[in-house]
């Protein structure tokens, strides 16, 4: 593995949810009738910066709403949480309260983060209200279908609701946890290699360390690690293949270093093959859902012809396969990636 810095020069546009995608979302219980839309949360008077415990700016802001609107907003956010977590069963939120709403102008979809607290025991949870972006929805679906992770979200028109994905932010983990003596660096490196491979096959881009989290699970004799994306805004848009390889981002250099120090070329290839085999197994199990997603996205323009043509060449070089000429969409490219992986595993 090697690291050459890559950058995303322009912010990706937000793509609308087209009718075929709406039908897909309805078929797979992702569509919902929400009592509050994203646009309604934008009706705040002003904001104040949100600082972390050390007084540093978090890039999030606390919106201040008119006093006569607060109760209505909070009640409807509780209903949304019940729909997200319990199919609309309101009993799950009877003893919960909205403690805080935060707004971020840093991300593509300008999300709102909502903190909801159980008043009986102070246990809290988060969820997000965002602008519905088709690219992000395709990324969430591919994560659900092809990764070892499950994602929970709902869509209503221009509004996207997402469950919070727990974990230690990748940049925080690299700067504060790498030196823990009881963490096996080889296991961390193994997971980064697998994550890297999964991203390029599914065309999940911009996985800089602050766009993924690390989940730690104590095992009977060691710790297990899993890297999970928390940002799907750059799903299948960019034309540079390196955008889909986390190893090429300067922000991930610590992960590249730990991989180079603990893995040989032979073990890297082994872990890549393991991830490819797991991914193909999941693709075979979910082949009908993948076909439905392909049909939903086949006429959806979510990038430029220039990006597709450039990415064809990059993927052909990466997989050492010259069979991308027929691909006309990002969906075609992902399908061809899967075919190449199947052929290489079988050979």
From TrEMBL:
Highest rank taxon of the organism: Bacteria
Protein name: Uncharacterized protein
Species this protein is from: Albibacterium profundi
Native organism taxonomy: Bacteria, Pseudomonadati, Bacteroidota, Sphingobacteriia, Sphingobacteriales
């Amino acid at each position: 593995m090697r690291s050459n810095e890559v950058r995303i020069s322009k912010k990706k546009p937000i793509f609308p949810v087209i009718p075929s995608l709406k039908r897909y979302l309805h078929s797979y219980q992702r569509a919902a009738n929400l009592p509050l839309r994203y646009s309604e949360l934008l009706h705040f008077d002003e904001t104040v910066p949100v600082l972390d415990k050390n007084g540093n700016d978090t890039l999030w802001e606390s919106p201040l709403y008119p006093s006569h609107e607060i109760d209505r907003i909070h009640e409807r956010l509780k209903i949304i949480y019940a729909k997200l977590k319990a199919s609309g069963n309101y009993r799950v939120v009877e003893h919960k309260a909205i403690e805080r709403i935060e707004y971020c102008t840093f991300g593509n979809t300008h999300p709102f983060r909502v903190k909801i607290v159980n008043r009986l025991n102070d246990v809290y949870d988060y969820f997000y209200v965002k602008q519905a972006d088709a690219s992000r929805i395709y990324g969430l679906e591919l994560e659900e279908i092809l990764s070892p992770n499950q994602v929970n979200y709902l869509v209503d028109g221009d509004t996207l609701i997402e469950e919070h994905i727990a974990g230690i932010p990748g940049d925080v983990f690299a700067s504060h946890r790498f030196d823990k003596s009881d963490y096996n660096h080889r296991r961390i490196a193994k997971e980064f290699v697998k994550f890297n491979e999964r991203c390029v096959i599914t065309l999940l881009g911009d996985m800089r360390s602050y766009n993924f989290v690390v989940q730690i699970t104590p095992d009977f004799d060691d710790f297990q690690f899993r890297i999970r994306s928390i940002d799907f805004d750059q799903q299948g848009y960019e034309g540079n293949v390196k955008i889909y390889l986390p190893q090429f981002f300067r922000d991930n250099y610590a992960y590249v270093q730990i991989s180079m120090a603990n893995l040989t070329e032979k073990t890297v290839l082994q872990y890549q093959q393991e991830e490819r085999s797991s991914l193909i197994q999941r693709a075979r199990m979910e082949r009908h859902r993948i076909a439905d997603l392909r049909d939903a996205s086949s006429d959806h323009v979510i990038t430029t012809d220039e990006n597709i043509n450039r990415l064809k060449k990059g993927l052909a070089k990466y997989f050492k396969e010259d069979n991308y000429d027929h691909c006309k969409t990002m969906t075609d490219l992902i399908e061809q990636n899967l075919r190449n992986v199947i052929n290489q595993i079988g050979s």
